[in-house]
Amino acid sequence: MPLPSMRLHGAKQCTAKSKRTCLPCNNPAAYGCRTCRMHGARKNIVSGKEHVNFVHGRRTLEAQAEQSATSRRLQQIEDAMHLLDMTTAKRSRGRKASGYLRIKSLDEIEKIII
Ligand SMILES: [Zn+2]
């Protein structure tokens, strides 16, 4: 039988069943999860906007991938500018974005323009 406080406050019950007795677990489900802490509540954590710690979305995996792609494109544009002698500025320093391939020829410039 579930805890009385679960019935009073409408908390969800853990959906796990005992292997030995085949009876459902009587613990309350963890917040945002279908199961209790004893039955792997962390496995059911949702991602994205439905995650309990979601604030603004600037640090999500999608946002970080988009920022990395933009940075990679800017670095390739800088390579193209140096290759075409459009600038005499120093090259930017620091770690390059993941997936960055240096532009070394005019043919590669045509590929990034498209
Ligand atoms: Zn449980």
Looking at this protein, list some descriptive labels.
114 residues; mainly alpha; 3 helices; rod-shaped; binds zinc ion
Q: Tell me the Rg in angstroms.
A: 26 Å
Strand-residue proportion: under 5%
Instruction: Spell the H/E element sequence.
Output: HHH
The total count of strands amounts to: 0
Gap from first CA to last CA: 64 Å
Nearest-integer average pLDDT: 87
Characterize the main sheet: none
Which ligands does the model contain, each kind named once?
Answer: zinc ion
- Which outline best applies? rod-shaped
Strand pairing plus helix content: what structural class? mainly alpha
Number of helices: 3
Question: What is the helix fraction of residues, given as a range?
Answer: 25-40%
Low-confidence stretches: none
Outline of this structure?
The protein is an all-alpha fold.
Q: How would you describe what is shown here?
A:
The chain is an all-alpha fold and 114 residues long. It contains 3 helices and no strands. The longest helix has 23 residues, at 61-83. It is rod-shaped. The N and C termini lie far apart (64 Å). Zinc ion (ZN) is lined by residues 14, 16, 25, 27, 35-36, 38-39.
